[in-house]
Amino acid sequence: xxxLLGWLPCGLGPAAVDDAALTDLDRAVLATLTERRExxxxxFHFEPGAIDPVALxxxxxxxxxxxxxxxxxxxxxxxxxxxxxxxxxxxxxTARTGVxxxxxxxxxxxxxxxxxxxxxxxxxxxxxxxxxxxxxx
Length: 137
What we know:
The chain has helices spanning 2-5, 24-29, 53-74, 90-97, 123-132; strands spanning 35-38, 42-46, 82-87, 105-108, 112-116.
């Protein structure tokens, strides 16, 4: 099934993340979101056993599709990989990150999106795209 979604074989399971663009919050939650899946366009960080495998597959597929769709809409290519921090649900995300109750997704820095695993939409990706491209005169 991994090949079906375009995952890289080396991207399954725990691994060290070496990305200077991660924020302090990103690094802090990596202490518990120790599992990782990687595609050519994104890394997905999540807690072992917290998300049903079928739901996790759907989240990876949907987020990659949102990223590719946004690139097509904007006629721009995102440089590097987006880091998606996936949480079991909104209360878990709130507890681990300290965001306001009711927030279903948010972006940090230039590469990271934190979200409940079942969130769908490209809104947070727009924020990190906007930070990557210089303003036009």
